[in-house]
Amino acid sequence: MKPVDEYFFNQKEPYQSIMLYVRSVILTTLPEVEEKYSYRIPFYNIGKKPMIYLNILKGKDYVDVAFVQGILFERRFPVLKDDNKRKQVRSIQLRTIEDLDHENFVELLHEASNSLSKSKKAWFI
């Protein structure tokens, strides 16, 4: 079993179901994305640049769906929040699968992918 699969299957519910659902949406929406296991969490890269990662922050009760260049999209996609005072990363916090607006998320994935494809680097701050 790949490390990223182990990561998902070792999560408690409801986090496991939420993460597997988000993973399926990402992989279906962006077939060019590369799933990696880095820093002990799943990352989704465009080329060699990280675009999004999934995490459960200590002391929090949600799955953190974090966009590396999220600061660029927070006005257009107000679902993105600045959690933990991160400079560039913005994220969607999911407590249930139903918290995810599927159509809005797919649109955000496309926009983030297009933006990252055009940028020279993922971390710009």
TrEMBL record:
Pfam families: DUF1801 (PF08818). InterPro entries: YdhG-like. SUPFAM superfamilies: YdhG-like (SSF159888). Residues 16-112 form the YdhG-like domain. Gene3D superfamilies: 3.90.1150.200. This is DUF1801 domain-containing protein.
